[in-house]
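As a point of orientation, let us examine one representative protein, giving the amino acid sequence and backbone structure tokens.
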Amino acid sequence: MFKAILVNKDDQGYRAQLGEVDEASLPEGEVKVKVLYSTLNYKDGLAITGKGPVVRSFPMVPGIDFSGQVIESSSPDFKAGDLVLLNGWGVGEGHWGGLAQQARVKADWLIPLPKGFTPRQALAIGTAGYTAMLCIMALQKHGLKPSDGEVLVTGAAGGVGSFAITLLSKLGFTVVASTGRLGEADYLKKLGATEVIDRASLSAPGKPLAKERWAAVVDSVGSYTLANACAQTKSDGAVAACGLAQGMDFPSTVAPFILRGITLYGINSVTMSRATRIAAYEQLSKLVDVKTLDEISHEIGLEESLKYAAELMAGNVRGRIIVDVNK
């Protein structure tokens, strides 16, 4: 038996609670893992609170990422004792995830724990930091250089935003942070933002084309914010979109794309190849100061994730929440 957060939907309604689970109930997979750490991400908040239809089967263990140690494996890629990391692949949505003391998953979904990081540090980065890195890799592939101008980061006080600011700053870019929590301005500037703007300037309906300002954008918000960010991006600039905190709609026009030639990159952090995942963490290992991880993250126990999920959905959480599933 092991402890897990279980999400159920039945005649009693939708609910999430801490429970005891039999190992025999674990889903199929080549690798069984003793989970050490998971995190709370936006999808996990939706899954636990029921505010979004992300859970595709019940009962479900949420948690879209985890680090842990292999208990047993039928795959030649991993053996008992190996430290491993998982991001995405539908865990916590259609396959039991990381908010539990054990998990069983497909070997292809795992990568070895990245060199230079402990299991806890890898989850302080987690899916949010990994997604931010994928956004920046897309901008790098586009050819973006610090001399091109300011880079806008929306949803700046969240996990993806916090990491995007840190990573872009380390790479020499001038970063402008957009947030609805202006009280976090000192925190955002400590991470590397040179300016903090109110998200209200981006979150309402705007013009199809606005004054050019941004050389590039990392957006985790979607909806009007993404539309306005595109409308303000410089000619031949790029926007990396990875989230939908404001909404999944995109109330824009083709104007920024056909009149200014901007590029909109959609960032899929869920089903990337193992090679791309490893490459992202190799860059992260070079760019992330482990001391910064303490600024961006804080740790809670497994049962506390129920309370913090509600806080996350209310927009009251800064940075990353690490879940010690054995605490």
